[in-house]
Specification:
By secondary structure, the chain is of the alpha/beta class. The chain folds into two domains: 169 residues, 3-Layer(aba) Sandwich (Rossmann fold), CATH 3.40.50; 62 residues, Helicase, Ruva Protein, domain 3. 48% of the residues lie in helices and 10% in strands. Strands 2-3-4-1-5 form a five-stranded parallel β-sheet, with helices on one face. It starts with 5 loop residues before the first helix and ends in a 10-residue tail after the last helix. Bound molecules: adenosine-5'-triphosphate, magnesium ion (MG) and zinc ion. The site of adenosine-5'-triphosphate has 22 residues, from helix 1, helix 3 and helix 10. Adenosine-5'-triphosphate binds next to helix 1, helix 3 and helix 10.
């Protein structure tokens, strides 16, 4: 069975598909149009808000066969290679797992080589704040004199841990956390396109659980859709999350209000029993 994770399948492939980050998108589009793309960007913001996706669209725009263009076609060889991570010119490095000087040195050795097939080389360094001090310094050297054909995109969820000397070399963008409404809208679009049946209230619960991350919200929708035979209901989502639904809360409140202490305690007992509510559990 071939199953591409929903959030991967739904990674934006155009600037227009990047939701809720208008200032970033506007500036980058303009930079490509006017041929003023910077050699170093710092993308900071919460997880799952579009940092890597935006870096990839930027790379596509720069290297598209029809480009440089703010509207990469997404279909040429270069665009496709970037989308499936096989481009020789667009390299992603995770600083969380390659924290050391060796990786950065390696990068420095390769950085001066001309692009293989595109116009530009784009180095995406994720979680850049994780680099060791030594590696940071080596990176700083590269940022001081970046080769003409190179664009660095440094991404981080913890900007305050990035050295000021690095930040000052970059054009910096803060990615915003999407609102519940924005997440619901995205989830709705995806579920409709994928033929996933889900009640509106369930979408809100999923969006809330995503805690401001498109990836987490989409991942949860994915999980739910794979085990829900019928449609996804709000109570099903809560059950999966082990959360307490509003019904249980109402029930308890009434019991307390009407001084039915025994009932209130019984509900409490049930809730603490399995993290599940009083609703009958779904047949497996
Ligand atoms: N702004 C956005 N608009 C539309 N979809 C988004 C957006 N941000 C994230 N997504 C969805 O979430 C997935 C992951 O996003 P991405 O990898 O760009 O996040 P990130 O900010 O780099 O997260 P991390 O900090 O964890 O690396 C994408 O494939 C896409 O499905
Ligand atoms: Mg990322
Ligand atoms: Zn293209």
């Amino acid at each position: 069975m071939k199953h591409t994770t929903l959030y991967r399948k739904w990674r934006p492939r155009r600037f227009g598909g990047i939701v809720g980050q208008e200032p970033v998108v506007r500036t980058l589009r303009r930079a490509i149009e006017t041929d003023r793309v910077s050699h170093a960007y710092l993308f900071s913001g919460p997880r799952g808000t579009g940092k890597t996706s935006t870096a990839k669209v930027l790379a596509m725009g720069l290297n598209c066969e029809k480009g440089p263009t703010p509207e990469p076609d997404g279909t040429c060889e270069s665009c496709r290679a970037i989308m499936n991570n096989s481009s020789m010119d667009v390299l992603e490095m995770d600083a969380a797992s390659n924290r050391g000087i060796d990786e950065i040195r390696d990068l420095r050795d390769r950085v001066n080589l001309a692009p293989v097939s595109g116009r530009m080389k784009v180095y995406i360094i994720d979680e850049v704040h994780m680099l060791t001090a030594e590696a940071f310094n080596a990176l700083l050297k590269m940022l001081e004199e970046p080769p003409e054909h190179v664009v660095f995109v440094l991404a981080t969820t913890e900007k305050h841990k990035v050295l000021p000397t690095i930040i000052s070399r970059c054009q910096s963008f803060d990615f915003r956390r999407p609102s519940i409404e924005t997440l619901v809208e995205k989830l709705k679009e995806i579920s409709e396109a994928e033929g996933i049946e889900v009640e509106p209230e369930a979408l809100t619960v999923i969006a809330r659980e995503g805690r401001g991350s498109f990836r987490d919200a989409e991942g949860l929708l994915d999980q739910l859709s794979s085990f829900a035979e019928g449609g996804i209901t709000a109570s099903m989502v809560r059950e999966l999350l082990g959360g307490v639904g509003p019904e249980a809360l109402t029930e308890t409140t009434y019991a307390l209000y009407e001084r039915r202490t025994a009932d209130a305690l019984r509900i409490l007992d049930r809730l603490s029993g399995g993290g599940s509510t009083s609703r009958p559990s779904r047949a497996a």
